[in-house]
Specification:
Blueprint: H1 2-20, H2 32-39, H3 50-61, H4 83-95, H5 106-123, E1 130-134, H6 137-155, H7 160-163, E2 172-176, H8 181-189, E3 198-200, H9 210-218, E4 224-229, H10 241-250, E5 254-258, E6 283-287, E7 299-303, H11 306-313, H12 343-377, E8 382-384, E9 392-397, H13 404-418, E10 424-428, E11 431-437, H14 445-464
Parallel strand pairs: 2-3, 2-4, 4-5, 5-6
Antiparallel strand pairs: 1-7, 6-7, 8-9, 9-11, 10-11
Helix pairs in contact: 1-3, 4-12, 5-12, 6-8, 6-11, 9-10, 12-14, 13-14
This protein binds pyridoxal-5'-phosphate.
């Protein structure tokens, strides 16, 4: 009874939250101290009724929530959650399947198999590619590069899973200078230190230069993995995958593509040209919690080498019973054993959107990003720093007089303070920038216009010197 009451309460609270999403302030007003006070206190001495706990949790936490699923949240690269995926996540929690082995949840295993095949089809990857459902693109990069490490060392006569890295042939990792930090994080976990990574030159949009890669590849014969990128986290730019694949083929290097959000361009006929050559790569990684608009957390890894992928990940123990029919054993493809059954929400997203729905979502976000840039560009003191090829827009304030970095930072602070929209800051070519990512299914033209107006208002206030610092902002 208590469980049903708590679920009913959560459903009511969830519905209210969803209904308020469009008009809630995008960034919360509660201070750190207020949140600690509201959520804190001593560990309860004994049990409290479940529904009461849920009500109190919601009351205390809500003032500290960022409306990341709202239509004017443009921070980081954050997808909203399409309705079917939220409902599927709730069921996933109710079902509570530890999706490591088929025997723990046949449905979780089969749903991964089906959703994995749909994703391979949607993204135009090789039909026999392997798939892993992980927490996010960081772990997807890690998993793919662990498969790369396995395969490159296997070809060199070394069993890294058995014999480790000490005494192993030296591995080389080559990345573009605009590599995402999670690739470096993944390589670090795999025994390749940040200082050992070879970085090659990129162009003004952050795209790896093939001639720089060619020179780096020619420098040594060591087993090599090359990490390219589809969708620069600032500019949205794509490395030229096809040209890079020509080079990695020639040098027998493993080609990995980090496509945390940019990989979804493959689902759009208008944008697919940006990922030309994707079908030739050895592995790639993306996030469902970004552009597929699945709730956090949900990352995806694909490899063209199932045996290497499985060898790098799978573990066995007497009690970890494998099924005789040889179904998909989810833990063979991920670094974790016990794990949430992430496949259900991905399945729900693909089923509710369909092929055309994913393409529409991606195309619409790109169209809205172009609208954002066009509106902002009309303001004489605003410069758009990147070519808006995808869903990312980099905005800089260039005042007639004074420090452009300080003006950009101050304008961003004012935008965040107004709370009509939320965007974060970054640096691009040594310049401060406001960073916009349009990644949410529910964002409309009106949301873009309201947000652009808020940014323009802030820029004008900075220009006229009418600013004052409020508390509680990041
Ligand atoms: C290009 C790129 N790679 C990797 C990541 C890491 O993804 P996650 O934080 O989901 O693990 C991101 C996150 O924004 C990204 O933009």
């Amino acid at each position: 009874m208590a469980e049903e009451d708590a679920l009913g309460r959560a459903l009511d609270l969830g519905r209210d939250y969803i209904a308020s999403r469009r008009e809630r302030p995008v960034w919360p007003s509660a201070t750190l101290t207020a949140l600690r006070d509201a959520l804190g206190g001593a560990l309860p001495a004994g049990p409290i009724d479940a529904a009461e706990v849920i009500t109190a949790l919601s009351r205390a936490a809500e003032p500290g929530l960022v409306t990341t699923t709202g239509p004017r949240y443009f921070g980081f690269v954050t997808g909203g959650a399409v309705p079917a995926t939220v409902a599927a996540e709730w069921l996933t929690a109710v079902w509570d399947q530890p999706a490591a082995l088929y025997v723990m949840s046949p449905a979780a295993s089969v749903v991964e198999e089906i959703a994995g095949a749909w994703l391979i089809d949607l993204l135009g990857l090789p039909a026999d590619a392997s798939v892993g459902f992980v927490t996010g693109c960081h772990m997807a990069n890690f998993t793919a590069l662990a498969a790369a490490r396995h395969e490159l060392l296997r070809r060199a006569g070394w069993d890294v899973e058995a014999d480790g890295l000490q005494g192993a042939p030296r591995l080389r990792a080559i990345v573009g200078d605009e590599v995402h930090v999670s690739v470096i994080g993944a390589l670090r976990l795999l025994g390749i230190g940040a200082r050992q990574v070879v970085r090659v030159a990129v162009d003004d949009q952050g795209r790896m230069k093939p001639e720089a890669l060619a020179a780096a590849l020619a420098e040594a014969q060591d087993p090599t993995m090359v990490c390219a990128q589809a969708g620069n986290v600032n500019s949205g730019a794509f490395d030229p995958i096809d040209a890079i694949a020509d080079l990695t083929n020639r040098h027998h290097a493993w080609l990995h593509v980090d496509g945390a959000f940019g990989l979804w361009a493959a689902a759009s006929s208008a944008l697919r040209q940006h990922v030309r050559g994707l079908e030739r790569v050895d592995s790639c990684a993306t996030d469902a919690h970004k552009w597929l608009n699945v709730p956090y957390d949900s990352g995806l890894v694909f490899t063209a080498h199932p045996a290497a992928h499985r060898a790098a990940m799978s573990l066995s123990a007497a009690y970890l019973t494998r099924s005789p029919e040889e179904p998909r054993e989810p833990m063979d493809w991920t670094p974790e054993s016990s794990r949430r059954a992430r496949g259900f929400a991905v399945y729900a997203a693909l089923r509710t959107l369909g092929r055309s729905g994913v393409a529409d979502l991606v195309d619409r976000c790109c169209r809205l990003a172009r609208r954002f840039a066009a509106r902002l560009q009309q303001e004489p003191t605003i410069r758009i720093l990147n070519e808006v090829v995808l869903n990312q827009v980099l905005v800089r304030v260039v005042p007639q007089a004074g420090d452009a970095d300080a003006a950009t930072r101050e304008a961003l602070r004012l935008v965040q303070e107004e709370r009509i929209c939320w965007l974060g800051g970054s640096r691009w070519h040594g310049m401060e920038a406001m960073r916009i990512s349009v990644s949410n299914w529910s964002t409309t033209e009106d949301d873009i216009d309201r947000s652009a107006d808020s940014i323009i208002r802030a820029v004008r206030r900075v220009q006229s010197g009418q600013t004052s610092r409020a508390s509680g902002m990041p």
